[in-house]
Amino acid sequence: MRQAITAFIPHRFKVQLRRIYDSLEYNVAVRIGRRDPLLPPNWLHFAGGDYAQIGEHFFRLFVDNAGLKPHEKVLDVGCGTGRIARPLTKYLRDGSYDGIDIVAPSIMWCQRAYTPRHPNFYFHFADIYNKKYNPAGKYQASEYSFPFATSAFAFVFLTSVFTHMLPQDLENYLSEINRVLKSDGRCLITYFLLTQDSLKLIDEKASSGAFDYELPELPGCRVRSKDVPEDAIAYDESRIRELYQKYKLNISEPIRYGSWCGRKKGLSYQDIVVASKLV
Q: How far apart are CA 49 and CA 51, in angstroms?
C-alpha cells in the first residue's frame, strides 16, 4: 500500500520528505546522545567515501606531511559539511579554523553544529556561481577574493577542489592562497596530475577516470566530460609547477602521488602537493 501511495508523489516532494525525516532523525539522536553531533544528516552530506575515516586520513596528512601545529590558524577552502573540520576540533586547541564553501545549507548546518561547541571554528558562505551547487551565485570563481586579511593563516588546504576547477579559476585561487598565507605559511592541495606514469595507466584503462578530452580552450589539462568540464579535471604536472612558481609557492618535494590512476601504491587517492610561501 505504501509503495502504491508513494508512486503518486512527485520526486521533488519525496526529496523534501527524505530531508525532513533525516533531519528529525539526526536531531533526536543528538539529543538523546546516540549520535555524534558533528556527523551531518544523510541528505546533507553528498561527498563520497567514509565520512569519519576520510576526515581522519587528511588530519594525519596535515600533521605528518605539512607540519600542522595545534596553535596555528587554518583555512579550509571547500569545507563542505566539515568532514575534515571534525578531527581538527580535537587538535587545534590554541589555534583556529575557518571554512568556506559555496553550498549554503552545508555552511548553515556547520554554523549550528560546530561554532556553539567549538567557538574557534568559523564557517563562511562563498556566494560563487556553480551550475550544480549554487546556480544563483553572485561571483565567478575567477574573480572571487577570499574574505580574509592578508597573511592571516599559517596553513591552507583544499581537498578535491582543484579537481573541479577551470584554469582561470584555479589561478585566482592560487593567488588568493598566497595572499592569505603568512610568510612561513604552508598549503596542501589535492589534484589529478597528468604525468608520464599516470598517462600510461590511463591509456591502459587502469585509471578510475578516463580523462579522454583535451579542449582547446583549456590548455594544460584534460577532462572527463567535454559537456561539463568541471565534473573532473586533470592538470599537467608541468603546468601546475609553472603556476606555483608564478604565485610564489615553493613545492615541498616530492609530490605525493595518489592511486586514482591505477597506481599500486599511493599516499592518498588524489595526488598531494604541499608547498610553502616564498617570501
A: 6
C-alpha to C-alpha distances, 219 to 175, 222, 248, 255, nearest whole angstrom: 19, 8, 21, 22
The whole-angstrom distance between residue 9's C-alpha and the CA centroid of its chain comes to: 35
Q: Give the residue from 252, 247, 246 showing the smallest Cα distance to 275.
A: 252
Q: Fill in the amino acid letter for 244.
A: Y
Residue with cell 578516463: 210
What pLDDT, on the 0 to 100 scale, is given for residue 2? 43
Crossing angle for the helix pair 237-246 and 167-180, to the nearest 10 degrees: 40
pLDDT tens-digit readout, 186-223: 999 999 999 999 999 999 999 887 898 998 888 899 99
Side chain identity, residue 10: P
- Over residues 128-184, the pLDDT tens digits come to 998 878 889 999 999 999 999 999 999 999 999 999 999 999 999 999 999 999 999
Q: Which residues contact 8 (CB under 8 A, 6 or more apart)?
A: none
* CA 18 – CA 20 distance, rounded (Å): 5
Contacts of 100 (CB under 8 A, 6+ apart): 75, 76, 77, 78, 79, 107, 123, 124, 125, 126, 146, 147
